[in-house]
Amino acid sequence: MIGVAERLAPSVANLRVSHRTRGGRRLNGGGSAVVITPDGFMLTSAHVVANSDSGGRASFVDGRELGFEVVGSDSHSDLAVLRADASDLVPAELGDAERLRVGQLVVAIGNPHGFTGSVTAGVVSALGRSLPTRSGANVRVVDNVIQTDAALNPGNSGGALADGRGRVVGINTAVAGVGLGLAVPINAATRRIIGALMSEGRFRRAYLGIAGGPRPLPPKLARELGRKSGIEVVEVVEGGPAAQAGLRPEDLIVELDGSPIEGMDELQRVVVSEVIGRAVRAKVVREGREHELELIPAELDG
To answer: Which range of residues forms the domain containing residue 105?
Structure first.
């Protein structure tokens, strides 16, 4: 663990951020960020820089203090990209959270209570957790969140969760209880979000206008389709793309745009920017029979 701490400490910044309030006052907040490129790009939690005055100050273990600006923020994944005024920062190596296993040793590095470079160790206590995030009236679930017993405290948000080789596999985001911390995983999905925030300043998502969850398929249908579950539509938002396409509560979505749908993971992988405004085919099971509907996803606000 000493090697992991020494390797990552130069890549984790302590953030000081000024937040605007409704009354016009400014409140100083803090958090952590992880350097991902030598030329100043850093990754943090979106809630750390929410309502900020466009930026703040980042300090490093070598004593440097740099100004930064918010390049892009995505509240639905609780990720944000910052840019510091530097060209010689030490970037962390990003890993792959899909390779983590329950019981694996992990290290959390951040700046709890403003103490730069604080290190705690623990194990992955659960994988596949869900973390609800809100942006205005929209609520979205960040799937496959990592749960760890590495101690997280105020100021750890935005810091690194690393594996035993010092690769960043998550961004610490929340304390779920005594001895329980949550981290947004670094995987193929979040890499896409990070790339979009770096290049465009935002991440576009498609919107169907449904609420639902996984439900087992009837045995006969499961055998025919070669899968065990689909997404049951619990609620259809009036006037939304799903309502206009004719989806109803209790429909089971088993395929969307040619991709099999068994759970929310598969659905959210399909509902991306590329399908916004494009007609896609949805295969649903209604009263035991398969139906095909055509719907046109809109862009999710916020």
So the answer is: 97-200
